[in-house]
Amino acid sequence: MDIYLVGGAVRDALLGLPVKDRDWVVVGATPEDMIQHGFRQVGADFPVFLHPQSNEEYALARTERKRGHGYHGFAVHSAPDVTLEDDLRRRDLTINAMARAEDGTVVDPFNGQQDLEKRLLRHVSPAFAEDPLRILRVARFAARFAPMGFCIADETRALMCAMVDAGEVEHLVPERVWQEVQRALQEASPTVFFNVLQDCGALAVLMPALAQVMELEPAPLALRALQSASELSNSLAVRFAALAGSLDEASVEGLCDRLKVPNDCRALATHLAASVDDLLGEARHDPGLLLAILDRCDAWRRPERFGELLVAARAVALARHVDFNPLPIQDILRAAKAVDPRTLMDEGYQGKALGQAIRRRRYLIISDSLGLDNPPGVEP
Question: Which of 97, 114, 212, 251 could disulfide-link to 91, CB 3.0 to 4.6 Å?
Protein backbone atom coordinates (compact mmCIF):
# COMPACT_ATOMS: atom_id res chain seq x y z
CA MET A 1 0.00 0.00 0.00
CA ASP A 2 1.05 3.59 -0.70
CA ILE A 3 0.60 6.46 1.75
CA TYR A 4 0.27 10.14 0.80
CA LEU A 5 -0.01 13.37 2.76
CA VAL A 6 -3.03 15.21 1.32
CA GLY A 7 -5.14 18.34 1.41
CA GLY A 8 -4.48 21.38 3.56
CA ALA A 9 -1.08 20.23 4.84
CA VAL A 10 0.30 20.11 1.29
CA ARG A 11 -1.35 23.42 0.38
CA ASP A 12 -0.06 25.26 3.45
CA ALA A 13 3.46 23.89 3.06
CA LEU A 14 3.57 25.15 -0.53
CA LEU A 15 2.33 28.56 0.66
CA GLY A 16 5.01 28.67 3.33
CA LEU A 17 2.43 28.58 6.12
CA PRO A 18 2.65 26.53 9.33
CA VAL A 19 1.17 23.05 8.93
CA LYS A 20 -1.20 22.44 11.84
CA ASP A 21 -3.07 19.25 10.95
CA ARG A 22 -1.96 16.44 8.71
CA ASP A 23 -4.29 14.09 6.86
CA TRP A 24 -3.19 10.96 5.03
CA VAL A 25 -4.65 8.82 2.26
CA VAL A 26 -3.79 5.17 1.88
CA VAL A 27 -4.01 3.64 -1.62
CA GLY A 28 -4.18 -0.07 -2.31
CA ALA A 29 -5.20 -1.27 1.15
CA THR A 30 -8.20 -2.86 2.82
CA PRO A 31 -9.50 -2.26 6.36
CA GLU A 32 -8.04 -5.62 7.31
CA ASP A 33 -4.60 -4.50 6.05
CA MET A 34 -4.77 -1.37 8.20
CA ILE A 35 -5.81 -3.25 11.33
CA GLN A 36 -3.04 -5.78 10.71
CA HIS A 37 -0.54 -2.88 10.74
CA GLY A 38 -1.81 -1.70 14.13
CA PHE A 39 -4.18 1.08 12.99
CA ARG A 40 -7.45 1.61 14.90
CA GLN A 41 -10.61 2.11 12.82
CA VAL A 42 -12.77 5.09 13.83
CA GLY A 43 -14.77 6.01 10.73
CA ALA A 44 -18.40 4.97 10.60
CA ASP A 45 -19.37 6.37 7.17
CA PHE A 46 -16.08 5.46 5.50
CA PRO A 47 -12.85 3.73 6.57
CA VAL A 48 -10.73 6.11 8.66
CA PHE A 49 -7.99 4.86 10.95
CA LEU A 50 -5.76 6.28 13.67
CA HIS A 51 -2.03 5.71 13.44
CA PRO A 52 -0.81 3.52 16.33
CA GLN A 53 1.87 6.05 17.37
CA SER A 54 0.94 9.53 16.08
CA ASN A 55 -2.87 9.16 16.30
CA GLU A 56 -3.11 11.06 12.99
CA GLU A 57 -5.97 10.12 10.67
CA TYR A 58 -5.35 7.81 7.74
CA ALA A 59 -8.26 7.32 5.33
CA LEU A 60 -8.51 4.69 2.64
CA ALA A 61 -8.75 6.18 -0.84
CA ARG A 62 -12.42 6.55 -1.75
CA THR A 63 -14.92 7.89 -4.22
CA GLU A 64 -18.34 9.42 -3.53
CA ARG A 65 -21.58 9.26 -5.50
CA LYS A 66 -24.52 11.54 -4.80
CA ARG A 67 -27.69 9.74 -3.81
CA GLY A 68 -29.71 12.42 -2.00
CA HIS A 69 -29.79 15.98 -0.75
CA GLY A 70 -27.45 17.66 1.69
CA TYR A 71 -24.19 16.77 3.34
CA HIS A 72 -25.07 13.14 4.10
CA GLY A 73 -26.55 12.36 0.70
CA PHE A 74 -23.55 10.40 -0.60
CA ALA A 75 -22.66 6.78 -1.21
CA VAL A 76 -19.00 6.14 -0.38
CA HIS A 77 -16.92 3.52 -2.17
CA SER A 78 -13.54 2.46 -0.81
CA ALA A 79 -11.49 -0.38 -2.27
CA PRO A 80 -7.85 -1.20 -3.10
CA ASP A 81 -8.48 -0.34 -6.78
CA VAL A 82 -9.46 3.30 -6.01
CA THR A 83 -6.55 5.43 -7.24
CA LEU A 84 -5.04 8.51 -5.65
CA GLU A 85 -6.39 10.64 -8.50
CA ASP A 86 -9.87 9.19 -7.93
CA ASP A 87 -9.64 10.27 -4.30
CA LEU A 88 -8.33 13.76 -5.10
CA ARG A 89 -11.02 14.32 -7.76
CA ARG A 90 -13.78 14.26 -5.12
CA ARG A 91 -12.24 17.19 -3.20
CA ASP A 92 -13.59 20.73 -3.30
CA LEU A 93 -10.84 23.04 -4.57
CA THR A 94 -7.77 22.43 -6.70
CA ILE A 95 -5.51 23.87 -4.00
CA ASN A 96 -6.87 21.19 -1.63
CA ALA A 97 -6.56 18.38 -4.20
CA MET A 98 -2.81 17.82 -4.04
CA ALA A 99 -0.84 15.04 -2.37
CA ARG A 100 2.77 14.49 -1.37
CA ALA A 101 4.36 11.07 -1.71
CA GLU A 102 6.74 9.60 0.84
CA ASP A 103 9.71 10.69 -1.31
CA GLY A 104 8.49 14.30 -1.28
CA THR A 105 7.04 14.33 -4.81
CA VAL A 106 3.93 16.50 -5.14
CA VAL A 107 1.07 14.82 -6.98
CA ASP A 108 -1.05 17.55 -8.59
CA PRO A 109 -3.46 16.20 -11.23
CA PHE A 110 -5.76 19.27 -11.17
CA ASN A 111 -3.19 22.10 -11.33
CA GLY A 112 -3.51 23.17 -7.73
CA GLN A 113 0.03 24.61 -7.68
CA GLN A 114 -0.84 26.80 -10.65
CA ASP A 115 -3.92 28.10 -8.87
CA LEU A 116 -1.82 28.78 -5.77
CA GLU A 117 0.44 30.96 -7.88
CA LYS A 118 -2.57 32.70 -9.45
CA ARG A 119 -4.21 33.07 -6.02
CA LEU A 120 -7.40 31.39 -7.27
CA LEU A 121 -9.99 29.31 -5.44
CA ARG A 122 -11.24 27.02 -8.20
CA HIS A 123 -13.42 23.92 -7.94
CA VAL A 124 -11.95 20.58 -9.00
CA SER A 125 -14.85 19.18 -11.02
CA PRO A 126 -18.60 19.55 -11.64
CA ALA A 127 -19.08 17.16 -8.71
CA PHE A 128 -18.52 20.25 -6.51
CA ALA A 129 -22.22 21.01 -7.07
CA GLU A 130 -23.26 17.81 -5.31
CA ASP A 131 -22.36 19.12 -1.83
CA PRO A 132 -23.86 22.50 -0.81
CA LEU A 133 -21.60 22.68 2.23
CA ARG A 134 -18.79 23.45 -0.21
CA ILE A 135 -20.29 26.89 -0.80
CA LEU A 136 -19.59 27.72 2.84
CA ARG A 137 -16.15 26.12 2.69
CA VAL A 138 -15.16 28.21 -0.31
CA ALA A 139 -16.42 31.33 1.46
CA ARG A 140 -14.36 30.36 4.51
CA PHE A 141 -11.22 29.79 2.47
CA ALA A 142 -11.82 33.16 0.82
CA ALA A 143 -11.91 34.71 4.31
CA ARG A 144 -8.73 32.90 5.34
CA PHE A 145 -6.66 33.69 2.29
CA ALA A 146 -7.98 37.16 1.41
CA PRO A 147 -4.93 38.82 3.03
CA MET A 148 -2.76 36.84 0.60
CA GLY A 149 -4.72 38.09 -2.41
CA PHE A 150 -6.84 35.01 -3.13
CA CYS A 151 -10.17 35.34 -4.90
CA ILE A 152 -12.82 32.93 -6.18
CA ALA A 153 -12.59 31.88 -9.82
CA ASP A 154 -15.42 33.22 -11.96
CA GLU A 155 -16.57 29.75 -12.97
CA THR A 156 -16.65 28.61 -9.34
CA ARG A 157 -18.62 31.68 -8.30
CA ALA A 158 -21.11 31.00 -11.11
CA LEU A 159 -21.46 27.37 -10.00
CA MET A 160 -22.12 28.46 -6.41
CA CYS A 161 -24.90 30.79 -7.60
CA ALA A 162 -26.42 27.96 -9.66
CA MET A 163 -26.37 25.67 -6.64
CA VAL A 164 -28.24 28.25 -4.57
CA ASP A 165 -30.80 28.70 -7.35
CA ALA A 166 -31.28 24.93 -7.48
CA GLY A 167 -32.26 24.90 -3.79
CA GLU A 168 -29.36 22.76 -2.59
CA VAL A 169 -28.47 25.15 0.25
CA GLU A 170 -31.91 24.63 1.81
CA HIS A 171 -30.91 21.07 2.70
CA LEU A 172 -28.00 22.05 4.93
CA VAL A 173 -28.50 21.22 8.60
CA PRO A 174 -27.98 24.03 11.15
CA GLU A 175 -25.15 22.28 12.98
CA ARG A 176 -23.03 22.07 9.83
CA VAL A 177 -23.78 25.68 8.93
CA TRP A 178 -22.80 26.92 12.38
CA GLN A 179 -19.61 24.85 12.27
CA GLU A 180 -18.54 26.73 9.14
CA VAL A 181 -19.75 30.09 10.48
CA GLN A 182 -17.76 29.78 13.70
CA ARG A 183 -14.64 28.80 11.79
CA ALA A 184 -15.13 31.71 9.41
CA LEU A 185 -15.59 34.16 12.27
CA GLN A 186 -12.11 33.27 13.47
CA GLU A 187 -10.42 33.63 10.07
CA ALA A 188 -8.11 36.50 9.14
CA SER A 189 -10.79 38.42 7.21
CA PRO A 190 -14.15 37.13 8.50
CA THR A 191 -16.22 39.76 6.68
CA VAL A 192 -15.23 38.18 3.36
CA PHE A 193 -17.13 35.02 4.31
CA PHE A 194 -20.43 36.87 4.62
CA ASN A 195 -19.82 38.95 1.51
CA VAL A 196 -19.26 35.80 -0.53
CA LEU A 197 -22.44 34.19 0.81
CA GLN A 198 -24.36 37.40 0.11
CA ASP A 199 -23.04 37.62 -3.44
CA CYS A 200 -24.07 34.06 -4.36
CA GLY A 201 -27.47 34.28 -2.62
CA ALA A 202 -26.74 31.71 0.09
CA LEU A 203 -26.94 34.21 2.96
CA ALA A 204 -30.59 35.00 2.21
CA VAL A 205 -31.36 31.29 2.61
CA LEU A 206 -29.24 30.59 5.66
CA MET A 207 -29.40 33.89 7.58
CA PRO A 208 -32.20 35.98 6.04
CA ALA A 209 -32.27 38.66 8.77
CA LEU A 210 -28.57 39.33 8.32
CA ALA A 211 -28.87 39.29 4.53
CA GLN A 212 -31.67 41.85 4.73
CA VAL A 213 -29.67 44.37 6.79
CA MET A 214 -26.64 43.84 4.54
CA GLU A 215 -28.69 44.90 1.53
CA LEU A 216 -29.48 48.29 3.06
CA GLU A 217 -26.08 49.96 2.64
CA PRO A 218 -22.91 49.60 0.54
CA ALA A 219 -20.72 49.01 3.62
CA PRO A 220 -23.09 47.21 6.03
CA LEU A 221 -22.89 48.11 9.71
CA ALA A 222 -22.84 44.42 10.61
CA LEU A 223 -19.64 43.83 8.64
CA ARG A 224 -18.00 47.02 9.84
CA ALA A 225 -18.69 45.95 13.42
CA LEU A 226 -17.36 42.45 12.74
CA GLN A 227 -14.21 43.89 11.19
CA SER A 228 -13.66 46.07 14.27
CA ALA A 229 -14.34 43.12 16.59
CA SER A 230 -11.80 40.98 14.72
CA GLU A 231 -9.19 43.68 15.37
CA LEU A 232 -10.14 43.99 19.05
CA SER A 233 -10.61 40.37 20.09
CA ASN A 234 -10.03 36.75 19.12
CA SER A 235 -13.15 35.69 21.02
CA LEU A 236 -15.72 33.86 18.91
CA ALA A 237 -18.55 35.15 21.12
CA VAL A 238 -17.39 38.77 20.76
CA ARG A 239 -17.13 38.52 16.99
CA PHE A 240 -20.53 36.87 16.62
CA ALA A 241 -22.17 39.41 18.92
CA ALA A 242 -20.66 42.31 16.96
CA LEU A 243 -21.90 40.78 13.70
CA ALA A 244 -25.42 40.48 15.12
CA GLY A 245 -25.25 43.91 16.76
CA SER A 246 -27.10 45.59 13.91
CA LEU A 247 -30.14 43.35 14.44
CA ASP A 248 -32.99 43.87 16.89
CA GLU A 249 -33.47 41.46 19.78
CA ALA A 250 -36.10 39.34 18.03
CA SER A 251 -33.93 38.98 14.93
CA VAL A 252 -30.92 37.97 17.01
CA GLU A 253 -33.02 35.32 18.76
CA GLY A 254 -34.27 34.10 15.39
CA LEU A 255 -30.74 33.93 13.97
CA CYS A 256 -29.53 31.98 17.00
CA ASP A 257 -32.48 29.59 16.74
CA ARG A 258 -31.90 29.06 13.03
CA LEU A 259 -28.20 28.27 13.43
CA LYS A 260 -28.50 26.51 16.82
CA VAL A 261 -25.89 28.89 18.19
CA PRO A 262 -24.26 27.64 21.44
CA ASN A 263 -25.31 29.27 24.68
CA ASP A 264 -22.23 31.42 25.28
CA CYS A 265 -22.41 33.08 21.86
CA ARG A 266 -26.18 33.37 22.04
CA ALA A 267 -26.16 35.01 25.49
CA LEU A 268 -23.57 37.61 24.53
CA ALA A 269 -25.34 38.46 21.26
CA THR A 270 -28.75 38.83 22.89
CA HIS A 271 -27.38 40.93 25.76
CA LEU A 272 -25.62 43.18 23.26
CA ALA A 273 -28.77 43.59 21.16
CA ALA A 274 -30.72 44.58 24.28
CA SER A 275 -28.08 46.95 25.67
CA VAL A 276 -25.88 48.40 22.95
CA ASP A 277 -27.97 51.51 22.19
CA ASP A 278 -28.15 52.40 25.88
CA LEU A 279 -24.47 51.64 26.51
CA LEU A 280 -23.45 53.95 23.66
CA GLY A 281 -25.95 56.58 24.74
CA GLU A 282 -27.87 57.41 27.89
CA ALA A 283 -26.34 54.79 30.21
CA ARG A 284 -23.15 56.85 30.38
CA HIS A 285 -25.16 59.60 32.08
CA ASP A 286 -27.93 57.67 33.84
CA PRO A 287 -26.89 55.55 36.85
CA GLY A 288 -30.28 53.86 37.07
CA LEU A 289 -30.09 52.75 33.43
CA LEU A 290 -26.51 51.53 33.80
CA LEU A 291 -27.45 49.65 36.96
CA ALA A 292 -30.36 48.00 35.11
CA ILE A 293 -27.97 46.89 32.34
CA LEU A 294 -25.52 45.45 34.88
CA ASP A 295 -28.39 43.58 36.54
CA ARG A 296 -29.85 42.31 33.27
CA CYS A 297 -26.47 41.06 32.05
CA ASP A 298 -25.71 39.47 35.45
CA ALA A 299 -22.45 41.41 35.50
CA TRP A 300 -22.10 40.79 39.24
CA ARG A 301 -21.65 37.04 38.80
CA ARG A 302 -20.37 37.09 35.19
CA PRO A 303 -17.94 40.03 35.03
CA GLU A 304 -15.83 38.32 32.35
CA ARG A 305 -18.83 38.01 30.04
CA PHE A 306 -19.75 41.64 30.70
CA GLY A 307 -16.20 42.55 29.75
CA GLU A 308 -16.71 40.78 26.43
CA LEU A 309 -20.00 42.65 26.03
CA LEU A 310 -18.15 45.94 26.36
CA VAL A 311 -15.61 44.87 23.74
CA ALA A 312 -18.44 43.98 21.34
CA ALA A 313 -20.13 47.30 22.11
CA ARG A 314 -16.84 49.05 21.35
CA ALA A 315 -16.78 47.30 17.95
CA VAL A 316 -20.32 48.48 17.20
CA ALA A 317 -19.40 52.00 18.33
CA LEU A 318 -16.45 52.07 15.93
CA ALA A 319 -18.74 50.90 13.12
CA ARG A 320 -21.20 53.69 13.96
CA HIS A 321 -18.41 56.25 14.33
CA VAL A 322 -19.46 56.84 17.95
CA ASP A 323 -16.92 57.65 20.66
CA PHE A 324 -17.14 54.94 23.33
CA ASN A 325 -14.52 54.01 25.91
CA PRO A 326 -15.50 50.90 27.90
CA LEU A 327 -12.79 51.31 30.55
CA PRO A 328 -14.79 53.70 32.81
CA ILE A 329 -17.72 51.26 32.84
CA GLN A 330 -15.39 48.42 33.78
CA ASP A 331 -14.06 50.55 36.64
CA ILE A 332 -17.62 51.32 37.74
CA LEU A 333 -18.49 47.63 37.75
CA ARG A 334 -15.48 46.79 39.92
CA ALA A 335 -16.37 49.54 42.38
CA ALA A 336 -20.06 48.64 42.57
CA LYS A 337 -19.28 44.93 42.79
CA ALA A 338 -17.25 45.62 45.93
CA VAL A 339 -20.44 46.32 47.92
CA ASP A 340 -20.29 43.71 50.69
CA PRO A 341 -23.62 42.15 51.72
CA ARG A 342 -22.08 41.01 55.03
CA THR A 343 -21.39 44.61 56.03
CA LEU A 344 -25.00 45.51 55.30
CA MET A 345 -26.20 42.49 57.27
CA ASP A 346 -24.14 43.70 60.22
CA GLU A 347 -26.02 46.99 59.88
CA GLY A 348 -29.28 45.11 60.34
CA TYR A 349 -30.47 44.59 56.76
CA GLN A 350 -32.14 41.23 56.02
CA GLY A 351 -34.25 39.62 53.31
CA LYS A 352 -35.82 41.97 50.80
CA ALA A 353 -34.43 45.00 52.62
CA LEU A 354 -30.91 43.61 52.15
CA GLY A 355 -31.39 43.34 48.40
CA GLN A 356 -32.72 46.89 48.24
CA ALA A 357 -29.79 48.17 50.31
CA ILE A 358 -27.28 46.49 48.00
CA ARG A 359 -28.90 48.11 44.96
CA ARG A 360 -29.03 51.50 46.67
CA ARG A 361 -25.33 51.39 47.53
CA ARG A 362 -24.46 50.30 44.00
CA TYR A 363 -26.59 53.10 42.57
CA LEU A 364 -24.79 55.68 44.70
CA ILE A 365 -21.38 54.32 43.68
CA ILE A 366 -22.38 54.47 40.00
CA SER A 367 -23.73 58.01 40.42
CA ASP A 368 -20.53 59.14 42.08
CA SER A 369 -18.35 57.39 39.46
CA LEU A 370 -20.27 59.13 36.66
CA GLY A 371 -19.63 62.44 38.40
CA LEU A 372 -23.31 63.31 38.68
CA ASP A 373 -24.37 65.64 41.48
CA ASN A 374 -28.06 65.35 40.59
CA PRO A 375 -28.40 62.06 38.74
CA PRO A 376 -31.49 61.54 36.59
CA GLY A 377 -34.00 58.87 37.31
CA VAL A 378 -35.27 57.55 40.59
CA GLU A 379 -32.90 56.07 43.14
CA PRO A 380 -33.73 52.40 43.71
Answer: 97
Question: Which of 365, 187, 222, 197 shows the shortest CA–CA distance to 290?
Answer: 365
* Dihedral class, residue 289 (left if φ above 0, else alpha if ψ from -120 to 50, else beta): alpha
Closest of 318, 297, 300 to residue 225, by C-alpha: 318
Pick the CATH number of 1-115 from 3.40.50.12500, 3.30.460.10, 3.40.50.10700, 3.40.190.10: 3.30.460.10
Please give the Cα distance from 22 to 16 (Å, whole number).
15
Q: According to the annotation, is 8 in a ligand binding site?
A: yes
Q: Where in the chain is CATH 1.10.110.30?
A: 119-206
Task: Judge whether 119 is annotated as a binding position.
Answer: no
Residue range(s) in the chain whose domain bears CATH number 3.30.460.10:
1-115
pTM over 0.85: yes
Which pLDDT value is given to residue 217?
Answer: 78
Q: Is 21 annotated as a binding residue?
A: yes
pLDDT exceeds 90 at position 218: no
Q: Please indicate if the annotation marks 23 as binding a ligand.
A: yes
Q: Which amino acid is at 332?
A: I
- Residue 81: predicted pLDDT: 87
Q: Concatenate the DSSP letters of all residues of 291-344 into one string.
A: HHHHHHTTTTT-HHHHHHHHHHHHHHHHHHT----SHHHHHHHHHHHT--HHHH
pLDDT mean over 304-325: 96
Query: Does pLDDT of 380 surpass 70?
Result: no
Domain 119-206 has CATH 1.10.645.10: no
Mean pLDDT, residues 49-74: 78
Contact 280, 313 (CB under 8 A): yes
- C-alpha 261/C-alpha 174 separation (Å) is 9
Q: What is the mean pLDDT of residues 251-271?
A: 96
